[in-house]
Inverse folding.
């Protein structure tokens, strides 16, 4: 008898802990309503709490625990996916801490019940179909899924989620395009008053190592396109990951930066796993960001000066060289290897000593505005001066945003040199081989043939060209016999692709390269 009494007391204590009796009296926690859902649907839990931390529990109809998570207080939201074998009936969501809790209920229904269930018919009368979204195939073979987000009014976040089953279905139906890429497009439609959009999806699709898979998350604020090898492993040791794109807070930026940005968009990108921000950085798998943008009249006159800035932790602006405006899409697009704040800006940088450089002025100004090239002072570019081998390889690596890990460099390149990383990357990628005896001779002026050889190798490494041009075409230039044998294929490739034009019928391979010549060559490479 005593054992039975002790068992009953233990059960009562356990139930009291799991299911507090005083759920709503004087609670500082509020929960938003949750509509009825179907098996396999995502469920979004959101609300506010005057607590530092809360526990969220979802109870099945038989009062067993289906889902538990610990969240930060304030405006909170969480999303999970109902299993395919979820029992039908009423589910209770409890959020809070101790006796300070709130609760709401929602139903999991059969699809045939949606119109017959007396308890849910009135609630669902004005609700859209919450079943599994339809997978549609685009003209280029991509799978496209339009999701149904829910808005957390407290945080201004519109959240959507894709189940593992739906993602598997979308990937299975996607077809490779002409470039061998298989893409799934996940759309979050515009939600009134939303300041940020979040998409939850299975993490395995981005840690599969599939370089030819792309997951595109399309929102009204911008589109994120991530490759299947974005993560080298599961970053959260779980099943799901969340991408967030939202309007960034400008208050911590320097005053001059805010003034230059003006009313142009500033977005913040985050990746979340297990409710924690992921400090993602993968040089081998950049993501692509596209932001809708309508230039003003002044910008349309010089759209190449529409640029992208990365806003660092101190509020400073760092140019993103590849950021550019595409009039055909009406978007500013750039690639990045880390999440942060990014702003659209309009920059027109010029120098006092290039005003008479009619054939190179535009190229110098565009590249300087994008942060690719720098002047010899704040007001001077020194266009007629020769350029060193170190400066050229630095510009080339920066313009093409070449990245690679390396363990060693040339003997005459020190770790403290400003060109150390550029030289190491270029050597690792086979762009430069040196002048012999593991020397690079960085401070020497670069000849035109060496410049062309490095440029062609860099463009081939990034897939911009192939060094398969017929070198017999070089005979059209009167000084082609002066081109060193190691550079002939590279020179021919650059001529074939319009990067090098020559001066009349001369290439001048042994002459030194000037800073204005470099600007024109880098500009053509940049736009190839």
């Amino acid at each position: 008898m005593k054992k039975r009494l002790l068992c009953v007391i233990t059960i009562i204590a356990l139930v009291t802990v799991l299911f507090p009796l005083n759920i709503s009296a004087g609670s500082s926690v509020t929960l938003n309503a949750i509509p009825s859902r179907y098996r396999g649907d995502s469920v979004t839990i959101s609300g506010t709490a005057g607590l530092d931390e809360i526990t969220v529990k979802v109870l099945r109809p038989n009062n067993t625990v289906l889902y538990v998570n610990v969240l930060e207080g304030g405006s909170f939201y969480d999303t999970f996916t109902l299993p395919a074998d979820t029992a039908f009936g009423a589910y209770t969501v409890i959020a809070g801490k101790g006796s300070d809790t709130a609760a709401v209920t929602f139903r999991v229904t059969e699809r045939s019940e949606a119109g017959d269930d007396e308890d849910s018919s009135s609630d669902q009368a004005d609700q859209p179909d919450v079943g599994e979204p339809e997978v549609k195939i685009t003209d280029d073979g991509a799978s496209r899924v339009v999701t149904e987000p829910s808005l957390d009014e407290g945080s201004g976040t519109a959240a959507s989620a894709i189940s593992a089953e739906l993602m598997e279905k979308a990937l299975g139906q996607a077809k490779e395009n002409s470039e061998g890429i298989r893409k799934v497009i996940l759309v979050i439609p515009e939600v009134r008053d939303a300041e940020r959009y979040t998409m939850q999806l299975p993490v395995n699709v981005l840690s599969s190592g599939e370089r030819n898979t792309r997951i595109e998350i399309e929102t009204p604020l911008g589109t994120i396109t991530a490759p299947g090898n974005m993560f080298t492993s599961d970053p959260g040791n779980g099943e799901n990951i969340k991408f967030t794109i939202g309007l960034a807070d400008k208050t911590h930026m320097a005053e001059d930066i805010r003034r230059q940005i003006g009313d142009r968009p500033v977005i913040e990108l985050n990746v979340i796993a297990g409710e924690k921000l992921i400090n993602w950085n993968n040089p081998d798998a950049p993501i692509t960001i596209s932001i809708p943008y309508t230039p003003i009249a002044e910008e349309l006159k010089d759209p190449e000066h529409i640029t992208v800035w990365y806003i660092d932790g101190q509020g400073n602006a760092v140019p993103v060289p590849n950021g550019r405006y595409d009039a055909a899409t009406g978007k500013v697009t750039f690639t990045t290897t880390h999440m942060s704040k990014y702003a659209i800006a309009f920059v027109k940088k010029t120098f006092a000593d290039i005003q008479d450089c009619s054939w190179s002025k535009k190229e110098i100004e565009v590249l300087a505005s994008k942060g690719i090239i720098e002047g010899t002072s704040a007001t001077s570019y020194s266009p007629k001066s020769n350029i060193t081998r170190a400066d050229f390889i630095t510009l080339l690596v920066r313009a093409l945003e070449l990245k690679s890990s390396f363990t060693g460099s040339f003997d005459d390149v020190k770790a403290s040199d400003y060109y150390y990383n550029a030289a190491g990357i270029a050597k690792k990628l086979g762009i430069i081989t040196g002048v012999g005896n593991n020397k690079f001779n960085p401070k020497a002026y670069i000849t035109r043939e060496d410049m062309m050889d490095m440029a062609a190798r860099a463009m081939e490494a990034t897939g911009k060209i192939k060094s398969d041009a017929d070198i017999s075409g070089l005979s059209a230039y009167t000084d082609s016999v002066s081109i060193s044998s190691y550079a002939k294929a590279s020179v021919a490739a650059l001529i074939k692709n319009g990067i090098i034009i020559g001066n009349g019928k001369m290439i001048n391979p042994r002459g030194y390269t000037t800073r204005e010549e470099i600007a024109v060559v880098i500009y053509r490479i940049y736009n190839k």
Observations:
- The longest strand covers residues 42-59.
- Confidence is low (pLDDT under 50) at residues 1-26, 113-130.
